[in-house]
Amino acid sequence: MDAKDILGLPKNSITQEKKSRPQKDSQRKPDGISREVYALTGGFPPLIPAIEASQLKKRPPSDEKITWQWLPFTNSARKDNLHLYHWVRIVNGVPPTGDYSFAKYNKMWTKEETDQLFELCQSFDLRFIVIADRFPSSRTVEELKDRYYSVARAMLAARAPSPGDISGHPLVKEPYNVSQETERKRALSMVLSQTKQQERKDAEVLAEAKRITESRMVARGAEESELPVPSNAGPESAERAAIPSDTVSPSANVQHPSAAVAPSTITVDNASILASLRMLRVYLRTYALDQMVQAASSSAGLRTIKRVEQTLQELGVNLKPRVPTKAVCAEHLELRREILTLLNLQKQLQYKEAEGSSYRDGSYGDTPGTPKHLSHGGDQDRIFVPDMNFAGERIGKRDQKRKAPGRLSEAPLPAHKRPRKLKAADL
Amino acid sequence: MINSSSSKQVGQDQQATSEPRSPRPKIKMVKSEESDKRILNKKLKDVEISIPIVYGNVSFWLGKKASEYQSHKWTVYVRGATNEDIGVVIKRVVFQLHSSFKNPTRVVESPPFELSEAGWGEFEIAITLYFHIDLCDKPLTLYHHLKLYPEDESGPMSSKKPVVAECFDEIAFPEPSEGFLVRVQNHPAVNVPRLPTGFTLPPPELFVVPFEDANRKKRGDTKDHPLSQWFMNFSEADELLQLAAARQQVQAYLAKLRRQISMIDGQHQQLKTISDS
């Protein structure tokens, strides 16, 4: 109203339109559905009424009186006398009759059925596959077996003078386990129907599991210092574990908590290498040495390994022993380990020197008489000069970044200038 | 090759000299087959036997008789490191030659396990060793690069002096069967370690000797082999000495480093106390 005043429009014309519109709208408003929904279908009544509006919102038949009551009930399928409660729909005061609606799903054996089963068992000599085929109502082989064995057991128990007499009977001692049997057969059929790919994958996982258990057992054995029995039990129990369960879990049969990693990883690696060598029925000494060298160098980087080899050459030792007997290989391995320790200690010393120098420089500056460095300072490349006593100290610039060493002597470079001897020496 | 068991037997015989030795009964005690098999197959742990071998080739330049495709005559072989007969362990050897040779798979059924051929080219030969079944049913393969031409290329080629390339190795059997151990315990080609104390092996009569061993006419050792004059010497002692010397050097240097480190640690400690005070 105010807007019209503002706009200066005449009041009468608009009010006239407004009056006519509500009349039209109320004429159009459909019955039973909202206006918007009606508008979706075109906004006009259909030529042929599709659904009677009266059908859409049905009320319950007015002649019935429905109430709900909280009542107890029993289940005929249960052996115990469990009384539970639930809501029951009462029609005109009459509660429903009949058994609990879900009881019919319990597989019931009637006397008739059982008699039929026993008859078939006798005529077909307990061949359950045949019996299952001929059984009138559809029952699985496991169900039939279960019924037969439980009835037979009950009869045996009833006829026996005392329970002790029958305790040795297989029917009593090893009762038929339906669920286990069903599961076993299912797993078996799964295994049989595996594709080649799945078979391969399973074999891989089992092999991995075996390796893991072996190495764990060896680790445990190395700690307890008694070598374990190699696992024939391992793969078998792993297989048994695999069949009943869908997923193969390699750690399932490793019951013992994996002991904390052995203090020195070197011992564990070596022990596992020895164990794996023992698994082979035959192997070459050079192969064994190779494996152990790899294990010993596993913790070191490529550069360190190269330095070890360089040191060996400086010492005049063949990288691969020429006469690799058991004793020689053992000595060779020990030498390599000692060289590794040597290199690590050298590095340690360098760090300490660096610490010391920064410390000294920071607090006191250079005091006269303090040796600037105590070892072969900038000489990073060579420890043992061939044909030379290493005891001679080297004095050179203490610059750890410099690669070219300050050499004291004109000592000939190893290997390059030495005349090449027979190749056999290099083996 | 420890002959501890045989010395034991000698001792026993000496003790029993007072009684006349009864002749061995012709009818042996009959054991059931299963227990026999069990004895034969019983594996011994912690008793690793090893056989030191040398494998490689000897090659002669044919000199005037050399043709383009047959310039050298060579022999590739596997022998015992001390030239003893390794036929006690190895049943047969298969040499796989380059495919350009006719029938490149050559099988040698009895020792000495060698193969001679003529050719011009160097290539890798796969040497597969098959052991007696009671020892090991898995074969082992070695690889050897055939060497025809000498290292020193500038020197003159001699048809009298061959080019030799040999390689030493040891075949290890970590868990030999009892039966096998009994068979080889005193054999010179096999290294048998000292048996654990209190351990005695059953008498050899219980074990059947493989047929071939008993009836082989050709000698299997290579002590007097025509090529034996060219065989190389592999001395364990030399290498052990070399390694011991190297270890000594390293250990001395290690000790020195450790001293230096502890000295520096001491100095740092001193400096620290000075600066703290």
UniProtKB/TrEMBL annotation, chain B:
The keyword Nucleotide-binding does not apply. Residues 1-20 have a biased composition (Polar residues). It is found in: Nucleus. Pfam families: YEATS. It comes from Carya illinoinensis (Pecan). This is YEATS domain-containing protein. Residues 43-187 form the YEATS domain. GO terms for biological process: regulation of DNA-templated transcription. The lineage of its organism: Eukaryota, Viridiplantae, Streptophyta, Embryophyta, Tracheophyta.
